[in-house]
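Exercise 7. Given the encoded structure of a 451-residue chain, write a plausible sequence.
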C-alpha cells in the first residue's frame, strides 16, 4: 500500500489541465450497453473507477480497448449481473440496472449497502423503474429485476437523486411511449449523459431542468463520432482550492467554468482573485484567507463533492466559517482528521463551524472517502512540516495523476510505500524536486547540467 507525503508551505504557480469528469464518464460507459455495437469515447479520465467499470462491462461480455480513447464493444451481453465484489468497491455500478432491464429484460445487481458518507439507499431508482413496469425481488443481498414490456410513466422523485435520475432515464429511453421524470437531477453530469444518449438516437428534452421528458424509441445505435466526456468540475474546483489554501497563482485549463460558479463564488468570498476564461479559471491568492459560509445543495447549488475541500480552505481562513451539508447525513469524516492537523472544527448534525487557525501542522492522517482524501491533501499543502495521507486508494478512484498535477505547479508531494520512514520521505521529496527541475532551469541557477 502507498501513502501520499506532502511537505507543506509552498505557494503554487503554473497551470493544471483538467481531466474528464468521473461522474459523467461512469454512467456514459455504462449507457453504451443500450446500443449494441462499437462505441468510442474520448476525454475518459484514467482512474481506478474507470478500470472497475470497464472490467464490470468486460465480465458482462463487452470487451474494451483503452488507447488514448476508449473503444467498447457492446454487441453481445452474456451475463446480466453486477456482482457484490464490484458494486461494493464502486457504487456507480448500480447504474447497470436500468440499461440491462431495458435491453435484456432482466438484471441481477448486488445492493450497494451503506458507505462512509451515509446509508445511500436506492429506493428512488427502484420506484422509478417499477413505474416503467420493472418488477424486483431481493434475494441474498441481490436485487433481481425483470422487465417484459417497459411503458412510459410519470415519475416523481422524492429528491433530485443523481444516479437515480440516470438509472431511470437509461431504462426510459427504450420504453414504449412518454416518460416524464419530475424533480430530476440537474447536475451537468446528468446533462452529459443526456447528450450522449441523444447521440445514440434517444429522444430526450428538458436536460438541465427538473423535468426530463423521454419519448421511448425501439432501439439505439452507436454514434458515428467519438463522444467527448465533459470536464470534471470537481477536479477543477479541488485544484482551485489547492491554490487558495497554499497561496500563489494557478490556472486550471480545459475546464468548463460555467459549471463551477457556486465554488468560485465561495473562493471569491474567501478573498481569492478569480479570473474566468472561456475554458480556464485562474486563481490568485496573495492576501490572508477570510472566513465564509457554505451550504451544499443540488446543482446549481454548491456541490456536496466540494464540501470537504472548502472545509480544508476554511481551516486557515481568518474568522469563523459555517459549513452546512444538506445532501448526505454523514459527510464530515474529514473534520476529525483535519483536527489532528490543528484545525478547530465543531460539528453537530449537518452543521460544521470552523474557526480559522494561523497555520496547520503536518500529521499522519487517514482518508475515509474520495473527497475527504482530497481535503487532507489540500490541508497538507498548507501545513507546516510533513503530512502523510494514508489509504490513498480512495484518491486513485477519482483523481487522475493528482500527485503529478500538483507537483507540476510546485508542490512538494510524492507517493511512497506506507512503510517509508521520515528520512526516506524527505529523500523522496528532494529527489522529486530535482527531477522536476529542467536542465535549462538548473543551468540558469548555475548548477552543473547532468547528462
Ligand atoms: C452522485 C455522485 C456523487 C455525489 C452525489 C450528490 C456519481 C457516481 N456519484 O451520487 O459523487 O456526491 O451524486 O451530488 O455520480 N437518496 C435516497 N434514495 C435514492 C437515491 C438517493 O434517499 O434512491 C438520497 C441519498 O441518500 C442522498 C441524496 O438522496 O442523501 C442524494 O443522493 P444521490 O444524488 O443519489 O447521490 P448519488 O447519485 O449516490
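Solution.
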Amino acid at each position: 500500500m502507498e501513502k501520499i507525503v506532502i511537505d507543506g508551505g509552498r505557494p503554487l504557480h503554473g497551470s493544471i489541465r483538467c481531466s474528464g469528469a468521473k461522474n459523467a464518464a461512469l454512467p456514459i460507459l455504462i449507457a453504451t450497453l443500450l446500443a449494441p455495437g462499437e462505441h468510442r469515447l474520448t476525454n475518459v479520465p484514467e482512474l481506478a473507477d474507470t478500470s472497475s467499470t470497464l472490467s464490470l462491462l468486460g465480465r458482462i461480455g463487452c470487451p474494451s480497448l483503452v488507447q488514448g480513447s476508449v473503444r467498447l464493444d457492446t454487441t453481445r451481453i452474456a451475463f446480466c449481473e453486477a456482482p457484490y465484489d464490484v458494486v461494493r468497491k464502486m457504487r456507480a455500478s448500480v447504474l447497470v440496472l436500468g440499461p440491462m432491464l431495458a435491453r435484456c429484460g432482466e438484471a441481477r445487481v448486488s445492493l450497494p449497502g451503506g458507505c462512509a458518507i451515509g446509508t445511500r439507499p436506492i429506493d428512488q431508482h427502484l420506484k422509478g423503474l417499477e413505474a416503467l413496469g420493472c418488477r424486483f425481488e431481493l434475494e441474498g443481498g441481490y436485487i433481481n429485476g425483470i422487465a417484459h414490456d417497459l411503458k412510459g410513466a410519470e415519475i416523481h422523485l422524492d429528491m433530485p437523486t443523481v444516479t437515480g435520475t440516470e438509472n431511470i432515464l437509461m431504462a426510459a429511453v427504450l420504453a414504449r411511449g412518454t416518460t416524464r421524470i419530475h424533480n430530476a437531477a440537474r447536475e451537468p453530469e446528468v446533462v452529459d449523459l443526456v447528450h450522449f444518449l441523444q447521440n445514440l438516437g434517444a429522444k430526450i428534452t428538458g436536460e438541465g431542468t427538473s423535468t426530463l421528458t423521454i419519448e421511448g424509441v425501439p432501439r439505439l445505435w452507436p454514434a458515428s463520432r467519438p463522444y467527448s466526456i465533459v470536464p470534471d468540475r470537481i477536479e477543477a474546483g479541488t485544484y482551485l482550492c489547492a491554490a487558495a489554501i497554499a497561496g500563489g497563482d494557478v490556472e486550471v485549463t480545459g475546464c468548463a467554468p460555467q459549471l463551477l460558479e457556486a465554488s468560485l463564488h465561495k473562493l471569491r468570498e474567501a478573498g481569492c482573485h478569480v479570473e474566468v476564461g472561456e475554458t480556464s479559471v485562474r486563481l490568485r491568492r496573495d492576501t490572508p484567507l477570510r472566513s465564509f459560509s457554505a451550504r451544499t445543495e443540488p446543482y446549481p447549488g454548491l456541490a456536496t463533492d466540494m464540501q470537504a475541500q472548502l472545509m480544508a480552505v476554511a481551516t486557515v481562513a481568518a474568522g469563523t466559517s459555517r459549513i452546512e451539508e444538506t445532501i448526505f447525513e454523514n459527510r464530515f469524516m474529514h473534520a476529525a482528521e483535519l483536527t489532528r492537523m490543528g484545525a478547530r472544527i465543531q460539528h453537530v448534525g449537518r452543521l460544521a463551524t470552523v474557526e480559522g487557525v494561523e497555520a496547520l501542522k503536518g500529521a499522519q492522517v487517514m482518508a475515509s472517502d474520495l473527497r475527504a482524501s482530497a481535503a487532507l491533501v489540500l490541508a497538507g499543502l498548507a501545513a507546516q512540516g510533513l503530512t502523510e495521507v494514508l489509504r490513498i486508494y480512495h484518491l486513485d478512484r477519482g483523481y487522475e495523476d493528482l500527485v503529478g498535477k500538483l507537483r507540476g505547479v510546485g508542490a512538494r508531494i510524492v507517493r511512497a510505500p506506507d512503510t517509508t520512514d521520515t528520512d526516506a520521505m524527505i529523500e523522496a521529496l528532494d529527489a522529486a524536486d530535482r527531477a522536476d527541475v529542467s536542465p535549462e532551469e538548473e543551468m540558469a541557477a548555475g548548477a552543473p547540467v547532468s547528462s
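Remark. The chain has two domains: 2-19+231-418, 22-228. Students should compare their own answers with the one above.
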